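AAA-ATPase-like domain-containing protein structure dump, as promised
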Amino acid sequence: MAESKLKRVTENENQDFTVEPPNKKRKERSDLLKKFKCKYFYIDKSLLIKEFLQNGSKIVCITRPSGYGKTTNLIMLRYFFEMNYENIKENEFQNLQNKKYFENLLISKEKEDDQTYLDKYQGKYPVIYLDFSSDFKIGKTFEATIENFKTFISDLYEKYENINIKNLTKNKKKKWEKFQSGIFSISELKESISFLCLSLNKAFNKKIILLIDNYDSPILNTMSF
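C-alpha coordinates r here:
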Protein backbone atom coordinates (compact mmCIF):
# COMPACT_ATOMS: atom_id res chain seq x y z
CA MET A 1 0.00 0.00 0.00
CA ALA A 2 2.79 2.35 0.98
CA GLU A 3 4.66 1.44 -2.19
CA SER A 4 1.54 2.17 -4.25
CA LYS A 5 1.14 5.64 -2.67
CA LEU A 6 4.84 6.36 -3.15
CA LYS A 7 4.57 5.38 -6.79
CA ARG A 8 1.61 7.69 -7.37
CA VAL A 9 3.38 10.59 -5.64
CA THR A 10 6.47 10.05 -7.77
CA GLU A 11 4.39 9.97 -10.95
CA ASN A 12 2.60 13.20 -9.95
CA GLU A 13 5.92 14.92 -9.20
CA ASN A 14 7.25 13.94 -12.60
CA GLN A 15 4.16 15.35 -14.25
CA ASP A 16 4.35 18.61 -12.27
CA PHE A 17 7.96 19.27 -13.21
CA THR A 18 7.80 18.20 -16.83
CA VAL A 19 9.30 20.98 -18.99
CA GLU A 20 7.70 21.58 -22.35
CA PRO A 21 10.15 21.36 -25.28
CA PRO A 22 11.34 24.75 -26.53
CA ASN A 23 9.44 26.28 -29.37
CA LYS A 24 11.28 25.36 -32.56
CA LYS A 25 9.72 28.12 -34.57
CA ARG A 26 12.29 30.83 -35.22
CA LYS A 27 11.62 34.44 -35.98
CA GLU A 28 11.50 35.41 -39.62
CA ARG A 29 14.95 36.04 -40.99
CA SER A 30 15.90 39.64 -41.45
CA ASP A 31 16.33 41.11 -44.91
CA LEU A 32 20.09 41.23 -44.41
CA LEU A 33 20.30 37.54 -43.52
CA LYS A 34 18.30 36.65 -46.60
CA LYS A 35 20.37 38.91 -48.83
CA PHE A 36 23.68 37.53 -47.61
CA LYS A 37 22.32 33.96 -47.50
CA CYS A 38 22.96 33.48 -43.78
CA LYS A 39 20.83 31.01 -41.82
CA TYR A 40 20.73 32.37 -38.28
CA PHE A 41 23.12 35.27 -37.78
CA TYR A 42 25.59 37.52 -39.58
CA ILE A 43 28.98 38.53 -38.18
CA ASP A 44 29.89 41.97 -39.48
CA LYS A 45 32.88 41.53 -41.78
CA SER A 46 32.10 44.61 -43.85
CA LEU A 47 35.53 46.15 -43.19
CA LEU A 48 36.77 43.53 -45.64
CA ILE A 49 35.43 45.92 -48.29
CA LYS A 50 37.85 48.61 -47.13
CA GLU A 51 40.69 46.09 -47.05
CA PHE A 52 40.05 45.08 -50.66
CA LEU A 53 39.93 48.69 -51.81
CA GLN A 54 43.17 49.56 -50.04
CA ASN A 55 44.93 46.37 -51.13
CA GLY A 56 45.00 47.37 -54.79
CA SER A 57 45.72 43.85 -56.07
CA LYS A 58 44.20 42.93 -59.42
CA ILE A 59 43.64 39.32 -58.33
CA VAL A 60 42.82 38.09 -54.83
CA CYS A 61 42.46 34.37 -54.11
CA ILE A 62 40.89 33.35 -50.80
CA THR A 63 41.48 29.72 -49.87
CA ARG A 64 39.70 28.43 -46.80
CA PRO A 65 37.84 25.18 -46.01
CA SER A 66 34.11 24.89 -46.55
CA GLY A 67 32.01 26.75 -43.99
CA TYR A 68 34.48 29.58 -43.34
CA GLY A 69 32.21 32.27 -44.80
CA LYS A 70 33.77 32.74 -48.23
CA THR A 71 30.41 32.74 -50.00
CA THR A 72 28.85 35.16 -47.50
CA ASN A 73 31.72 37.60 -47.94
CA LEU A 74 31.63 37.36 -51.74
CA ILE A 75 27.89 38.04 -51.70
CA MET A 76 28.53 40.99 -49.40
CA LEU A 77 31.12 42.37 -51.83
CA ARG A 78 28.75 41.84 -54.72
CA TYR A 79 25.86 43.78 -53.22
CA PHE A 80 28.12 46.54 -51.95
CA PHE A 81 29.73 47.29 -55.31
CA GLU A 82 27.09 46.20 -57.83
CA MET A 83 25.50 49.02 -59.76
CA ASN A 84 21.98 49.35 -61.06
CA TYR A 85 21.53 47.92 -64.56
CA GLU A 86 17.82 48.62 -64.95
CA ASN A 87 16.38 51.89 -66.22
CA ILE A 88 19.80 53.48 -66.17
CA LYS A 89 19.88 57.21 -66.77
CA GLU A 90 23.04 58.97 -67.81
CA ASN A 91 25.56 58.96 -64.95
CA GLU A 92 22.95 57.65 -62.49
CA PHE A 93 24.26 54.20 -61.76
CA GLN A 94 24.20 53.93 -57.97
CA ASN A 95 22.20 50.99 -56.69
CA LEU A 96 20.40 52.57 -53.75
CA GLN A 97 18.29 49.46 -53.14
CA ASN A 98 21.30 47.64 -51.72
CA LYS A 99 22.55 50.60 -49.70
CA LYS A 100 20.16 49.89 -46.82
CA TYR A 101 21.92 46.59 -46.06
CA PHE A 102 25.15 48.43 -45.20
CA GLU A 103 23.88 51.50 -43.38
CA ASN A 104 24.22 49.86 -39.95
CA LEU A 105 27.42 47.92 -40.65
CA LEU A 106 30.96 48.97 -39.74
CA ILE A 107 31.78 50.02 -43.30
CA SER A 108 29.20 52.82 -43.04
CA LYS A 109 31.43 54.62 -40.51
CA GLU A 110 34.51 54.61 -42.75
CA LYS A 111 35.47 57.70 -44.74
CA GLU A 112 37.86 58.57 -47.54
CA ASP A 113 38.46 62.05 -48.95
CA ASP A 114 35.68 63.46 -46.74
CA GLN A 115 33.21 60.97 -48.20
CA THR A 116 31.78 57.88 -46.61
CA TYR A 117 32.58 54.59 -48.29
CA LEU A 118 28.87 54.20 -48.97
CA ASP A 119 28.69 57.47 -50.88
CA LYS A 120 31.95 56.96 -52.73
CA TYR A 121 31.91 53.27 -53.65
CA GLN A 122 28.59 51.60 -52.92
CA GLY A 123 26.54 50.52 -55.93
CA LYS A 124 28.75 52.11 -58.58
CA TYR A 125 30.53 49.27 -60.38
CA PRO A 126 29.63 46.51 -62.84
CA VAL A 127 29.94 43.22 -60.96
CA ILE A 128 30.09 39.73 -62.44
CA TYR A 129 29.32 37.04 -59.87
CA LEU A 130 29.93 33.41 -60.83
CA ASP A 131 28.97 30.51 -58.58
CA PHE A 132 30.22 27.21 -59.99
CA SER A 133 28.53 25.24 -57.22
CA SER A 134 24.86 26.12 -57.62
CA ASP A 135 24.70 27.63 -61.13
CA PHE A 136 26.84 25.17 -63.10
CA LYS A 137 26.44 21.40 -63.26
CA ILE A 138 28.84 18.77 -64.58
CA GLY A 139 27.22 16.48 -67.13
CA LYS A 140 27.78 12.74 -67.43
CA THR A 141 29.63 13.28 -70.72
CA PHE A 142 31.97 15.92 -72.08
CA GLU A 143 29.34 17.04 -74.57
CA ALA A 144 26.70 17.38 -71.85
CA THR A 145 29.09 19.41 -69.70
CA ILE A 146 29.81 21.79 -72.58
CA GLU A 147 26.08 22.29 -73.16
CA ASN A 148 25.59 22.99 -69.45
CA PHE A 149 28.43 25.51 -69.59
CA LYS A 150 26.80 27.23 -72.57
CA THR A 151 23.54 27.50 -70.64
CA PHE A 152 25.49 28.86 -67.67
CA ILE A 153 27.01 31.58 -69.89
CA SER A 154 23.71 32.37 -71.60
CA ASP A 155 21.99 32.84 -68.23
CA LEU A 156 24.87 35.05 -67.12
CA TYR A 157 24.49 37.36 -70.13
CA GLU A 158 20.74 37.58 -69.58
CA LYS A 159 21.41 39.35 -66.28
CA TYR A 160 22.81 42.28 -68.29
CA GLU A 161 20.13 42.40 -70.96
CA ASN A 162 19.10 45.95 -70.02
CA ILE A 163 22.49 47.57 -70.52
CA ASN A 164 23.21 49.72 -73.54
CA ILE A 165 25.82 48.09 -75.78
CA LYS A 166 25.84 50.87 -78.38
CA ASN A 167 29.55 51.45 -77.71
CA LEU A 168 30.37 47.98 -79.04
CA THR A 169 31.31 47.45 -82.66
CA LYS A 170 28.89 45.70 -85.00
CA ASN A 171 30.81 42.41 -84.80
CA LYS A 172 31.01 42.55 -81.02
CA LYS A 173 27.28 43.23 -80.78
CA LYS A 174 26.69 40.06 -82.80
CA LYS A 175 29.00 38.14 -80.48
CA TRP A 176 27.11 39.50 -77.46
CA GLU A 177 23.83 38.31 -78.97
CA LYS A 178 25.32 34.86 -79.64
CA PHE A 179 26.35 34.50 -76.01
CA GLN A 180 22.87 35.54 -74.93
CA SER A 181 21.30 32.95 -77.23
CA GLY A 182 23.53 30.12 -76.00
CA ILE A 183 24.46 29.16 -79.57
CA PHE A 184 28.21 29.46 -79.96
CA SER A 185 31.31 27.32 -80.47
CA ILE A 186 33.71 25.90 -77.89
CA SER A 187 36.40 28.36 -79.00
CA GLU A 188 33.95 31.21 -78.37
CA LEU A 189 32.99 29.66 -75.05
CA LYS A 190 36.59 30.02 -73.88
CA GLU A 191 36.43 33.80 -74.23
CA SER A 192 32.83 34.31 -73.07
CA ILE A 193 33.66 35.59 -69.57
CA SER A 194 36.57 37.81 -70.63
CA PHE A 195 34.41 39.22 -73.43
CA LEU A 196 31.68 40.06 -70.90
CA CYS A 197 34.23 41.90 -68.75
CA LEU A 198 35.51 43.91 -71.72
CA SER A 199 31.97 44.68 -72.90
CA LEU A 200 30.82 45.96 -69.51
CA ASN A 201 33.96 48.05 -69.23
CA LYS A 202 33.23 49.53 -72.65
CA ALA A 203 29.57 50.15 -71.83
CA PHE A 204 30.14 51.95 -68.52
CA ASN A 205 33.77 53.07 -68.71
CA LYS A 206 34.28 51.61 -65.24
CA LYS A 207 36.47 48.92 -63.75
CA ILE A 208 34.86 45.48 -63.59
CA ILE A 209 34.67 43.45 -60.39
CA LEU A 210 34.71 39.72 -61.12
CA LEU A 211 33.80 37.45 -58.19
CA ILE A 212 34.17 33.68 -58.61
CA ASP A 213 32.76 31.38 -55.94
CA ASN A 214 33.35 27.63 -55.63
CA TYR A 215 35.72 27.64 -58.61
CA ASP A 216 36.87 24.12 -57.72
CA SER A 217 33.38 22.58 -57.61
CA PRO A 218 33.40 21.34 -61.24
CA ILE A 219 36.63 19.45 -60.56
CA LEU A 220 35.39 18.00 -57.27
CA ASN A 221 32.06 17.01 -58.82
CA THR A 222 33.79 14.90 -61.47
CA MET A 223 35.05 12.63 -58.70
CA SER A 224 31.50 11.43 -58.06
CA PHE A 225 31.22 9.80 -61.49
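The chain has a mean pLDDT of 79.
lmk if u need the other ones
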